[in-house]
Amino acid sequence: MTAPTRLILRRPDDWHVHLRDGDMLEVVAGYSARQFARAIVMPNLVPPVTTPAAAAYRERILAAPGSAGFTPLMTLYLTDDADPRAVAEGHAAGIFTAAKLYPANATTNSAHGVTDVRNIHPVLATMQRIGMPLLIHGEVTDPAVDVFDREKMFIDRVFAGLVRDFPELKMVFEHITTAEAAEFVMAAGPNVAATVTPQHLHINRNALFAGGLRPHAYCLPVAKREEHRLAVRRAATSGSPKFFLGTDSAPHAIERKESGCGCAGIFNAPFAIESYAKAFEEEGAIDRLEAFASENGPRFYGLPLNEEWIALERAAVDVPERIEAAGTHLVPFHAGETLPWRYVGAA
Ligand SMILES: NC(=O)N[C@@H](CC(=O)O)C(=O)O
Ligand SMILES: [Zn+2]
Ligand SMILES: [Zn+2]
């Protein structure tokens, strides 16, 4: 069989993205809207999106250049004192598609996150009852736990308990990076799923130290050993409906990355579908890309599939070293590399 030269996919959605706000939003929203029909928009702004003020944030996203036709699906940032009634009302009103659990201080702008999941048990009981998904940044924050073990430890200390206490709650293990997370999701019921980023399909932790310290390869959860990358690849390309596309595109201005204390986050939105296509092809699973990118996510969320198609063609794409943004620059994932598939646009 000869390798395909053109791919037609149902238009994909991004089930985990950081669109930021203000000038940065104006620059980055269009990159996501160019490829994806819908996106689950993360609420870790300053201050966090904890109230129906999300409706105003949604309007700012829709007003950003290049956002025509794009549907942002908003998420609520859970805090220790989140109110079950307000959460249920926001969901019923269509303001919040899902709620996000950040363990306090686990990642960028998570200082107001949850200090102990027992504090939000009443909220979780309500979410289980109304069918509202819980999206989880799955890392413990215990400083005694090695940074590379924080995801694995979260399964034992927190996630396993959530599955036991809330067996019907829809939960997404966001941006998985370990063999243990892939196995845990695979073994759990159909209400537990995971998103997979492009970077965790392509890089292992060596990328952080390739010839020197590489801040643009740094995100959270941090990339792990090669055996974990391979396990995450196998899960994403397995055909299991429990794994779907979530870029975790997380732009930070170049001076915030190239710093004595560089921010966590990789900006992958500009070449996201090209990056996934490369990984799936390398795994001999290009025929499974469409389910991962465009079907498994909406089915899990109980939303309709997009009725639009996109085309990719086999053509070299040179990823720029930098992208101009709001008076500074962003360094995209795969900067300086050449990718084998080109996103053409609507098919
Ligand atoms: N992934 C990251 O490294 N960073 C994200 C936060 C997150 O998703 O944990 C960000 O907002 O910058
Ligand atoms: Zn996260
Ligand atoms: Zn994220």
UniProtKB/TrEMBL annotation:
What is catalyzed by this enzyme?
A: (S)-dihydroorotate + H2O = N-carbamoyl-L-aspartate + H(+)
Needed co-factor(s): Zn(2+)
Domain Amidohydrolase-related, residue spans:
14-304
- PROSITE patterns recorded for this chain? DIHYDROOROTASE_1 (PS00482), DIHYDROOROTASE_2 (PS00483)
The free-text note explaining how the cofactor binds reads: Binds 2 Zn(2+) ions per subunit.
- Entry-linked InterPro entries: Amidohydro-rel (IPR006680), DHOdimr (IPR004721), Dihydroorotase_CS (IPR002195), Metal_Hydrolase (IPR032466)
Query: What is the main EC category here?
Result: hydrolase
Q: Output the Gene3D superfamilies linked to this UniProt entry.
A: Metal-dependent hydrolases (3.20.20.140)
Which keywords describe this protein according to UniProt?
Answer: Hydrolase, Metal-binding, Pyrimidine biosynthesis, Zinc
Residues at which Zn(2+) 2 binds: K100, H137, H175
Q: Per UniProt, where does Zn(2+) 1 bind? A: H16, H18, K100, D248
Instruction: Name any one GO molecular function.
Output: dihydroorotase activity
Q: Does the keyword section mention Metal-binding?
A: yes
GO BP annotations, alphabetical order: 'de novo' pyrimidine nucleobase biosynthetic process; 'de novo' UMP biosynthetic process
Task: State whether keyword Cell membrane applies.
Answer: no
Point out residues bearing the modification N6-carboxylysine: K100
Give the EC number(s) listed in the UniProt record.
3.5.2.3
Q: In which pathway does it act?
A: Pyrimidine metabolism; UMP biosynthesis via de novo pathway; (S)-dihydroorotate from bicarbonate: step 3/3
Residues given in the record as substrate binding sites:
H18, L19, R20, N44, H137, L220, H252, A264
Q: What does this protein do?
A: Catalyzes the reversible cyclization of carbamoyl aspartate to dihydroorotate.
| Binding partners and assembly | Homodimer.
This protein is called what? Dihydroorotase
Q: Which organism is it from?
A: Sphingomonas parva
